Amino acid sequence: MFLGKQYSVSGRWEELALQNDLKSPFTSHDKHTIVRLIAGQAELSLYVHIPYCTQKCDYCSFFSKPTFHSHSRSMQNKKIYIDPGNAVITRIIEEVREAAKLFGKPFRTLYIGGGNPGLLDREILQEMLAASSLHGKPEEVSIESNPESLDASLIELLADGKIDRLSLGVQSLSKKNLVTIGRNFSDPEQIRNILADYCLPGRTWKLNIDLITGIPGQEDGDTENDMDEIIALADPEHLSIYELSIEPGTPLYQRYNALPGGMKLEDLRDESGKNLRKIWRHAAELGYKQYEISNFARRLVKSETDKFHTCRHNQTYWAMKPYLGIGPGAASTLYADTHAVRLEAMADLSAYSENKKSLFSKEYKIEELTSLEFLEEKLIMGLRTSEGLLKKEFLRIFNVPILSLLPKTLRKLLDEGLAVETEDAVILSMNGKILLNTILVEMFLEIDQNVKLVPSGIDLTAVFEL
Ligand code: SF4
Q: Which residues contact 91 (CB under 8 A, 6 or more apart)?
């Protein structure tokens, strides 16, 4: 599971922006501003958020609601689908169509995430795909699904080439681990059968499997065993392995707030952190390249080039290229001249369905990112990837060399083997990636001291020169 579902920055830069009197023309909810922004992008990826799941998982902090008030059940295959007349989904499709009209070119990539988009009625899903392809099919079309929503009709869309990638939320093949996190579908035997029925090697489409590690009480080697078994069954081109995040406000957080033996949530995170090195090494032994902190891709079959089955849509986020997020709770990053603009669609189903004719209206909050916010996000995104922070790009955008902005932190990282510097980039080592959050805090503190070096205007043309 990922983003459009967004990485958001803290609001602390807003204060600095105010101090520096950085005024933005992008502060209203004005529909015309959004329309102009969409029409004006040189390239654009599209994220569509389907805010429904059959039932909420205990660890989930994404915006999604249970479907039980609004679903239909197929008599033929006993699957549950979102009611085809659902007003939220109707508005989402209208906005997708409107965005395609406004943009006037094929979207670069499309990612249908959630929630569980596997719950979409198949005719409705086809309508959504058609709306997004008004000016041509995107280079890459991905869809997320929970295993239990997979069926022949979804596989047909993949086999026909209407969708290129399926991202399947397996999370674990251990009943105990699935129950611990309160996963909404926790039958590993059925997951195995689903993989064997629909995802055998030799398929024409690409498969990603989502796994969660760092689960309280998980056995040493559980995640590696899951990887081995999944590869033997389905040989996926891509793996996403996320550390469990126990977010405040979730039922899982309540459950682990009072841990036995004086254990704290931080201890659980430490244990999980130790586990990561072994998992990452295991992925490399199995032939997967870690191209982002949680994402692993296999080499293109029989290719002599150094190309991998990476997810091009998610690479849009890490390279901070423009993307439009449609659906309640989705975020967008768009550009206009030297301005970087963040849209956030309100996480509110009623508002979204009540105004179903009023596309891109007041449910979307608009905010300009300051140079400092943009810089902070650039660090967060760049350091997650195997390419690292690209020195020339950084200089072109921010008009200051990364080594001048962060001399102390970078020296320390290089001395301690937490990062390497090449001619082109600063790249975190394996140990550096484990300590990413701590490293980012140190970087932000140093930027606070050197804030005068960051110009108020930034050169966004560099974002498109990659
Ligand atoms: S399936 Fe995914 S989005 Fe839905 S409740 Fe579970 S974690 Fe959240």
A: 352, 353, 355, 356, 359
